[in-house]
């Protein structure tokens, strides 16, 4: 690969980048002091063990048919994204696979730093609920990222784009659980990571609607030692960022938990976190809808009407209760992401059991206690619009008392 135009304004003071014999994740700070001077060779050396391909620009042109508009997938702050095929025409003996190639917009607001952050974090972190970074390209001023192709695009498109069929309730639950697992992994990995940009557009879906987090350009290493938080410039996305982070710049894993609560509300309601087209008091989803989450009758008023008849009130209430706790003002009172996973994951199985509601109604007559029979019935079939809200145990409270591995 030809040598790269990293910011040549600054003195090229090469920092020794250790080659990893045993795998220990490099934190961004390990090399951030030298982001302007680290050579591509140093970078690929420092990421030995992460199995990233270093592509050339001509290879990625070939893969994407010269970044043709017919391969255009979308565009965000980093730049345009194109579908491509990596096969042995592109690179001999490589495993053939579809990819998404993200190209840094050289006139945009993001740049080398975001690109490098993505390569360093996502290059080293592997989990079924994180999008896999396959490789990168760094030639002259060009910066590209090559990811596994996520066939169903972003959650944002599915929730908010017109002409896309509404996501059914069980799929929303599956997406919530997958995304929660991705965040829990980041928070509990050996060197914890704060994701900082959790939102519907950064949750990508594979062909089976498995959720994976993408976009690590804003990710930060979590606090170390006795530190309680990381101090940063406030960045992120309006409507998703936690209030204390916006006010103080103090970043903790609990800021991600808040953002997760916002996405959970979007899944429940089908409303955007910020929607300027709605009446003034409904524009901010959390401000407007959080008070509706604790009461079944109120919740029914804000649930996405396209899911009518697909969910049980009881389970929707449990999900709403998780969202409510994630959105608590005091970050310390928010659950950890592992608690959220523990609370949401079992609901998927319970929801599956609801698929045959008439079996329940027949069995109901055999129950001795008529009251509990009614509760059972109302709890299972939302179409009946049961106003019942009480009586379920709160998975989060129960779980947060447990001592979770790696919890902070
Ligand atoms: N790995 C991928 N597989 C398939 N499509 C992708 C992939 N990565 C991105 N996309 C598509 O490209 C679009 C733009 O993604 P990108 O992450 O650059 O921007 P964004 O998330 O919409 O905005 P932001 O800059 O705020 O993150 C996504 O909405 C998605 O449709
Ligand atoms: Mg994104």
Automatic annotation (TrEMBL):
<dbReference type="GO" id="GO:0006952">
    <property type="term" value="P:defense response"/>
</dbReference>
<dbReference type="InterPro" id="IPR001245">
    <property type="entry name" value="Ser-Thr/Tyr_kinase_cat_dom"/>
</dbReference>
<dbReference type="Pfam" id="PF07714">
    <property type="entry name" value="PK_Tyr_Ser-Thr"/>
</dbReference>
<protein>
    <recommendedName>
        <fullName>non-specific serine/threonine protein kinase</fullName>
        <ecNumber>2.7.11.1</ecNumber>
    </recommendedName>
</protein>
<dbReference type="GO" id="GO:0004674">
    <property type="term" value="F:protein serine/threonine kinase activity"/>
</dbReference>
<feature type="region of interest" description="Disordered">
    <location>
        <begin position="370"/>
        <end position="408"/>
    </location>
</feature>
<keyword id="KW-0547">Nucleotide-binding</keyword>
<dbReference type="InterPro" id="IPR050823">
    <property type="entry name" value="Plant_Ser_Thr_Prot_Kinase"/>
</dbReference>
<keyword id="KW-0067">ATP-binding</keyword>
<dbReference type="InterPro" id="IPR000719">
    <property type="entry name" value="Prot_kinase_dom"/>
</dbReference>
<keyword id="KW-0723">Serine/threonine-protein kinase</keyword>
<keyword id="KW-0418">Kinase</keyword>
<dbReference type="InterPro" id="IPR008271">
    <property type="entry name" value="Ser/Thr_kinase_AS"/>
</dbReference>
<feature type="domain" description="Protein kinase">
    <location>
        <begin position="67"/>
        <end position="359"/>
    </location>
</feature>
<keyword id="KW-0808">Transferase</keyword>
<dbReference type="InterPro" id="IPR011009">
    <property type="entry name" value="Kinase-like_dom_sf"/>
</dbReference>
<dbReference type="GO" id="GO:0005524">
    <property type="term" value="F:ATP binding"/>
</dbReference>
<keyword id="KW-0611">Plant defense</keyword>
